[in-house]
Write a structure and sequence with these properties.
By secondary structure, this protein is α/β, with parallel strands linked by helices. It has a single domain, classed as Vaccinia Virus protein VP39 (Rossmann fold, 3-Layer(aba) Sandwich). It contains eleven helices and eight strands. Helix 2 packs across helix 9, helix 9 packs antiparallel against helix 11 and helix 10 crosses helix 11. The longest helix is centred in the last third of the chain and has 19 residues. It is globular, with a radius of gyration of 18 Å. It starts with 6 loop residues before the first helix and ends with a strand. Bound molecules: S-adenosylmethionine (SAM). S-adenosylmethionine binds next to loops.
Length: 271
């Protein structure tokens, strides 16, 4: 059964010229400081994530689900690390490569097409750190995904990922349908990511509840969507506008009631 849209269709739309123009126009009103993210992540959070991964000029960081490359480029410019971004959206990767070129990151930022639900196109022990924001919930076989992360991470390397779909209460099928309107997504029982990380050989360093950012970002999105109603309907159509408003409202409600929480997991591969 397919709810609403195929998520790839939604990402192609968001990473189109028009989609990026619209997001650039409203991003600061939603996130405060906007670097180009298409997620629940605020820049304050991202700075904390980077500090926990601790990259330096000698590091090579993989970002899974890098989209338009904004976060990867930010990490490379702010830490001096080398980054590789992987995403299956060619439209997103086009922006990522342009942005890296614009920032003079030739040789330090590389963007590759790849489906994270398959074997990663990288050799064992290739990266000193792996980062993935609000992407793992789109990939059903979490164990296989974490095994790939473990394989390509160097001993002693750190993995940080967020999961915005951790189930902590009762949710109806209708609520899930509305929440996942923008494409299939997996709901993960509370504790499952922790268990899988340990089973695959990671040591869980910390898990942090970041549900508050979903509530804040979703509230701001709702008011911005309303203010830009005409422009969004003209650019994307009424059906998309209505779906966006409903799914954002549901994300806020489920997060506010702590039924679906967003968590950041930091884990380490044994040295
Ligand atoms: C919610 S967006 C987050 C993008 C970015 N991490 C950010 O915070 O702005 C999810 C991203 O994951 C990508 N994605 C979804 N499924 C994927 C898969 N199986 N393999 C690689 N990328 C995937 C999408 O194309 C999209 O760019």
């Amino acid at each position: 059964m397919q709810f609403g849209f195929d998520s790839d269709v939604v990402y192609e739309m968001a990473y189109s010229d028009l989609g990026q123009q619209m997001l650039n126009a409203i991003g600061a009103e939603i996130y405060g400081e906007y670097i180009g993210q298409l997620s629940w992540m605020t820049i304050e959070e991202y700075r904390k994530f980077i500090a926990r991964l601790g990259p330096s000029a000698d590091s090579h960081v993989l970002e899974i689900g890098c989209g338009n490359g904004a976060a990867a480029v930010y990490l490379a410019t702010s830490t001096g690390a080398r980054v590789t971004g992987m995403d299956r959206s060619e439209a997103g990767l086009r922006f990522a490569r342009e942005l890296a070129k614009e920032k003079g990151l030739d040789g330090r930022a590389e963007f590759r097409a790849g489906d994270a639900s398959r074997e990663f196109p990288f050799a064992d022990d290739s990266f000193t750190a792996i980062f993935a924001n609000d992407t793992f919930s789109l990939i059903p076989d979490r164990a296989a995904l974490l095994r790939q992360c473990h394989r390509v991470l160097r001993p002693g390397g750190r993995l940080l990922f967020t999961d915005p779909m951790v189930l902590c209460g009762i949710v109806t099928s209708e609520e899930i349908e509305t929440r996942t309107w923008a494409g299939a997504s997996c709901v993960t029982p509370h504790g499952e990511n922790d268990r899988l990380l340990e089973r695959i050989g990671f040591q869980l360093v910390s898990s942090e509840d970041l549900t508050e950012s979903v509530v804040t970002v979703a509230r701001r999105q709702a008011s911005v969507f309303e203010r830009y109603r005409q422009e969004i309907v003209a650019g994307m159509g009424q059906e998309i506008f209505d779906g966006l408003v409903r799914s954002t409202g549901m994300a806020e409600r489920l997060a506010d009631q702590k039924r679906l929480i967003r968590t950041a997991y930091l884990a380490e591969k044994a040295a």
